[in-house]
Amino acid sequence: MSERADLVITNAGELLTLDDDEDGPATGAAMRNLGIVEGGAIAISDGRILAVGRSSVIEARYPAERTIDAEGHVVMPGIVDPHTHLVFPATREDEFEMRCLGKSYEEIAAAGGGIRNSARKMRAIGMKELHVAARRLRRSALLHGTTTVEIKSGYGLETEAEIRALEVARDIDDRGDVVRTFLGAHEVPDEYRKNREEYIRLVIEEMIPVVAERNLASFCDVFCEEAVFTIAESRRILEAGIAAGLGAKLHADELHPTGGAELAAELGAVSADHLIRVSSAGIAAMAEAGVVAVLLPGTSYFLGMKHFAPGRKMIDGGVPVALATDCNPGSSMTENMQFVMTTACLGYGFTAAEAITAATRNAAFAVGLGDEVGSLVRGKRADVLVLDVTNYRRLTYHHSVNHVRTVVHHGEVVT
Amino acid sequence: MSERADLVITNAGELLTLDDDEDGPATGAAMRNLGIVEGGAIAISDGRILAVGRSSVIEARYPAERTIDAEGHVVMPGIVDPHTHLVFPATREDEFEMRCLGKSYEEIAAAGGGIRNSARKMRAIGMKELHVAARRLRRSALLHGTTTVEIKSGYGLETEAEIRALEVARDIDDRGDVVRTFLGAHEVPDEYRKNREEYIRLVIEEMIPVVAERNLASFCDVFCEEAVFTIAESRRILEAGIAAGLGAKLHADELHPTGGAELAAELGAVSADHLIRVSSAGIAAMAEAGVVAVLLPGTSYFLGMKHFAPGRKMIDGGVPVALATDCNPGSSMTENMQFVMTTACLGYGFTAAEAITAATRNAAFAVGLGDEVGSLVRGKRADVLVLDVTNYRRLTYHHSVNHVRTVVHHGEVVT
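The joint structure predicted for all components is written out below.
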């Protein structure tokens, strides 16, 4: 009995399915299980995965319009980048140079740089220019293997500019591969410095309703930090988002252990992100509630930090861990998830398998798409990468180059 | 009056000539001078640079067979990578994973891993397999903008295998873009562990003469470190190399301040490399003698080090500083100099301009080719890159992606 396929990718040296017959993100030792089929193949039809198995079986059973011979290389699910800010008005290489010459990110922010710098430019930039830059970066991410990407607003800090950012994120999305998050509470803008409560009111009473009503985002996020939005403020904003039908995410415990992880657990957030200073209690609460920890090692690298999030402790504590680029013009100017994975191995003590699980299956759950992408399982979206390495450990070991030979996106060969 | 050119690259937003009318590598504040021609162009003939100037002038004066429109992007000299070990028998991703899980590089080496692991495999591998892997890596480096690369032996640790490595480095070199360095004194091999003096004798009396006689290398190098080769041993080996006509290089002060920088200055070495623990006296001696410091920030990254070489102090102290990948299977598995430049900005506090000078003009002097490559000056080899960024600071800021759009190598368009 045979079934017609549009595309078969065959002769994978290692086919990483990321499938262990369990639902949900992988935790603990399961993060080291890549569900490898040696000599594997995958059949694709109508943009969906039809079957996964050994090459001889798949080839015999699924005659295909087109066949890609992986020639013994690694085949894996498309990468999911669950935390970016890649719609932004301008790069900030001047601030990068100031940091390299010794100024801290906080000093630059206090002098009017950082997020507020981007906010001023965001309000002045035209839709088209914003669109062109975002599409270009999203395309580059795709060519580096990122088939699904989350994009946050948060450089507008006023209703109209926040909406514009989310519209651009929607418009560069050809078919549901951009997950949008509303982050109006990214920073208190200049004009509300002396009246922060008024800005919080604007976020809750004006921005969230319009974002929800116009279906501009799936999630609501807050930069929770003593100097930005407090725990109490973050709770109010996220509760308003949840009431409006948005899922919750949280920038938590990045600079100080403020209890952000605990808040994320309490609210049933889909993820808590950053977590460089997360407490042991926060780790336990996230594990208990099943909140995905989205870790951003590329940001630690780009900020020249000596201290990394306790990634190993989180995996060992049962937290489902994901990785993301945090792609943004201030603290992480890269869209390359492969570099992020290597930096996770070095900074957190992850194995290659843990980094891959964190960048695919677990990252998919961090954006609410765990049933759709992140693993190679019958019925899921056919987002598949053929790499130029013959064993998966080389993906993280041989670093800062692009190991992606072929990207299949929705069943179509992109490159 | 016009002169025929084979190729003109025109409309550079910024043409980085790296030319300041001085001979020798740049030092101090001169490292921030990229000799930028805005709206610049370059004319090329017979693989050499014919002229550099403003686009309108160059186009009028040098009618060309072929024109590349840089469309406002940055154009710069081909990158020079002055320290690699990219002829090696096998990748070592297993050791990378052990390190990520907590074992130190020294522990892995003591257990028979590290350089001695590669040495055992080097002696067993066939010439062809070695050749294929090295050519592939060299090609990837070229596509990342590295037009000239230095390659060291040092995984053979016996005469025949050292020769084989240098022959492979020679054979993958189509036209004089691989500078070869003999590094027989990279480690004491297993069989000489109890008789190191005998191995040093072998290096001096057997290997150096045959390498020099067969013209297999331009330089002799030693891994000078208390646990590897002492200052006294390093001096004997380098003096033997110099007597045989080889220039001197030195792996110096990487793990401990042993006086390697001072030895390099004393011997008139072309470069001293690593220098993580260099002393103030060592810096002063290098500045005085004009020894190029070849810094390897990617190695610090890949070894998870919190401590970087005092690169800023070296520039401010008048040492000509260069950058290199150190590409090797143990401590730096990347061939991407762009990543190295970003890491130098973050780890050493370099500006983008300093990193670019260190990776082009100064790196050329670190391999004895300062008069041939490393800057865009009439008469030099036409190794030129067109980037995908419109200002040079973005090259180091937007990291871990390949910004090279076009590589011109010996006047020919490679990609």
